[in-house]
Amino acid sequence: MLSFKLIAMFWALSRLIRMADQTYTVASDGETSAEDISKLIPTELAIGMDIGTSKCSVAIWNGSRVELLRNTRNQKLIRSYVLFKDEMLPSGGVSAEVPHGDPEILSGSAVFNMKRLIGRIDTDPVVHACKTLPFMVQTLDIGVRPFIAALVNNVWRSTTPEEVLAIFLVELKVMAELQLKRPIQNAVLTIPVSFNRFQLARIERACAMAGINVFRLMPEPTAVALLYAQQQQQSMHENMGSGIEKVALIFSMGAGYCDIAITATAGGVSQIKALLGIPLGGEDLLQNILRYLLPDFERVCSNHSLENIKSMALLRIAAQNAIHKLSSQTSVEINVDLGDGSKISRSLTRAEFEEVNDEVFVECEKLIAQCLLDAKLTAEDLNDVILVGGCSSIPKIRSLVLGLCKKRDSYKGIDSLEAAVHGAALEGAIASGINNSSGSLDLLTIQATPLSLGIRVDGDGFAPIIHRNTAVPSRKEMLFTTAHDNQTEALIVVYEGESKKAGENNILGYFKITGIPSAPKGSAEICVCMDIDASNILRVYAGAFLLGTQQAVSPFLEVRMPTIDDGHGWCGQALVNMYGSTMDLATIPKKV
Amino acid sequence: MIIRAIMVPNCGNGSICPSPTTTNLPFAGSTGHGRLVSMAMLRPRLLEQRSASRLASRPPAAAGDVGTIGELSTTTESFYELLGIPVSGSHDDIKRAYKQLARKYHPDVSPPDRTEEYTQRFILVQEAYETLSDPECRALYDRYLARGLHYALSARRRFGEELEEKSGWKNRWQDQLVELKRRSTTRNSEDNLSWGARMRKRWAESLAD
């Protein structure tokens, strides 16, 4: 149904549209964001999309409530994969009339877990964990994008995570268009909390390839928070209650990511108090079990022979089923013939499952404790605990979350698998300016930045300028000074992350300020300002002041981030190799 | 003037924009949580602290060059005025006022033609709320206000950070975090490895052979 040509066409088209936008922008007032444009041009209602590591869903506000769309097989939750076949066009789980079975999806011909791969470099542990998947993930560990390929007609054909995601998005888009009988342009997509700005840019690129205008990228648990806010407001109306503030912790764990948000909601306004996430999910639990069942697992996967792919697929299916069953029973029998003469025949208990995945559970506990710390709250402050995502049905996960939050039970009234897409569709309606007479869209979420943003200083130090969990939109600034006597140029290297070492954070871009007044080190003043606007676009302004004044030496530089693309892992080191510390910035010591 | 033009690039119309850099402290004073900065051993001297001392020694007339910028001028407006509440307002009053103003100024709900202007305003409201909703910061701010230096809320971050260290919630959770980290490290040590880690180790060793 869809070819690469079509994708290319979509891409070309969307670029044309973008160019048109830019022209429009310049003509109007120099700084109109994409969002403003979509507000100015009469647009249609944005749909909500939840692109999960394992499953996707699409929903829309139908005028009175949110409705989930179904694929041709009447499914609301659609498996995320794209199958590549010779001479046939690649197809995902959306449009296939006949469902692809697990053996086909795990044959090496299908690419899945795109969300774990997109925007990551080949030194990333998450990419390395993907090397045991049936399709090919090749890493050379030099800080570039990994090589990904699907088996087509006995040949490994290369592709990219963005391309795969774009094909899948086109299918979702077409599915929605057929059902809603109108073209779809705008969408609100949910994203993992831990995604950096580089990954967000890749998601946007995949959307552009699919002809989808990204209205908002919404961290998954904040989409759930929006749904919670709506429900709270409705129950307030019913009970004629005053605007009592309700605080909820949302724990969202799917196949690929574990995310937490703490939200305080009253009168339809939700503040995201803290956001925290890590790339840890059901896929990690599964891999640990695979390794437990077959200690040789990684070695068997690494050679990518047809026989091994087939036997690993059988093992994967068996392990997956076993994990699902262990949510409701305490022991499960595993009988799988690997086809190469070896057989795995044993029982797996829930206790074993929990022991094998102990590390994962400890990580989850740490995440919750840290998130409460960030929000400056204790378990007693929480009114509700909301568990969502595929892993929320795992007894150990439930008990650890509820235990740490000191709650007997989790919040009822939210579907754990549909909550995120529900929230995305609500946001789509709100951001599209839809008003509802019943007031059920009378909602506002004040988002927070999930990662700190700052610059490199004092060698490899990191000076955060906008800290994580700062309410957005936001604008913060800080003064810095020179590291050397008579230094007239300085590099502003922008990073995102929580490490005190800049090099361990994610580099977003860099630029140079010139014309710093000649002075002894530590006396010149360089101002760096960071601005996150309503569309979550990050701009960095920087310039030097004349000595002893707050008059700029020359016009400031304004740089939209991220500025770098592939090979970004190298840039920071390349700058150090080239310039050493000659253009370093230093922090200004506090006057005591 | 140069800075002003640059720092407020989102404004189509300069006459309705505040000048966040020169003397307009709510902008300058928003350098984030001092706690994290100090933890990072970076010790940057925050702009807010500098500006505060400068402002204090500055002739009062200097404030006028910002005060003329119209509706959004903030140098003469206290955080209480910004939120539209009396100085005696309760914590709940502050919260209510903040949420009410957020509903007006937040870019998600503001009229599209005034998004830029309202976004600036939202950031100020946010700053006011963050200051006044923290009892220690508010007490400090009130002291400044009484001396007519309310725009020099400068030192509050530094001050706030010390108070924050002392307060109970942090210690409690920090203990728990330390405990969790200790648990995970002891488990990883020696033969007490978790299953996954043991397997990875064995796999790594088999590769080395």
TrEMBL record, chain A:
<dbReference type="InterPro" id="IPR043129">
    <property type="entry name" value="ATPase_NBD"/>
</dbReference>
<dbReference type="InterPro" id="IPR013126">
    <property type="entry name" value="Hsp_70_fam"/>
</dbReference>
<comment type="similarity">
    <text>Belongs to the heat shock protein 70 family.</text>
</comment>
<keyword id="KW-0067">ATP-binding</keyword>
<dbReference type="InterPro" id="IPR029047">
    <property type="entry name" value="HSP70_peptide-bd_sf"/>
</dbReference>
<dbReference type="GO" id="GO:0005524">
    <property type="term" value="F:ATP binding"/>
</dbReference>
<protein>
    <recommendedName>
        <fullName>Heat shock 70 kDa protein 8</fullName>
    </recommendedName>
</protein>
<dbReference type="Pfam" id="PF00012">
    <property type="entry name" value="HSP70"/>
</dbReference>
<dbReference type="GO" id="GO:0140662">
    <property type="term" value="F:ATP-dependent protein folding chaperone"/>
</dbReference>
<keyword id="KW-0732">Signal</keyword>
<keyword id="KW-0547">Nucleotide-binding</keyword>
<feature type="signal peptide">
    <location>
        <begin position="1"/>
        <end position="22"/>
    </location>
</feature>
From TrEMBL, chain B:
<dbReference type="GO" id="GO:0009507">
    <property type="term" value="C:chloroplast"/>
</dbReference>
<dbReference type="GO" id="GO:0005783">
    <property type="term" value="C:endoplasmic reticulum"/>
</dbReference>
<dbReference type="InterPro" id="IPR018253">
    <property type="entry name" value="DnaJ_domain_CS"/>
</dbReference>
<protein>
    <recommendedName>
        <fullName>J domain-containing protein</fullName>
    </recommendedName>
</protein>
<dbReference type="InterPro" id="IPR053232">
    <property type="entry name" value="DnaJ_C/III_chloroplastic"/>
</dbReference>
<dbReference type="InterPro" id="IPR036869">
    <property type="entry name" value="J_dom_sf"/>
</dbReference>
<dbReference type="InterPro" id="IPR001623">
    <property type="entry name" value="DnaJ_domain"/>
</dbReference>
<feature type="domain" description="J">
    <location>
        <begin position="78"/>
        <end position="145"/>
    </location>
</feature>
<dbReference type="Pfam" id="PF00226">
    <property type="entry name" value="DnaJ"/>
</dbReference>
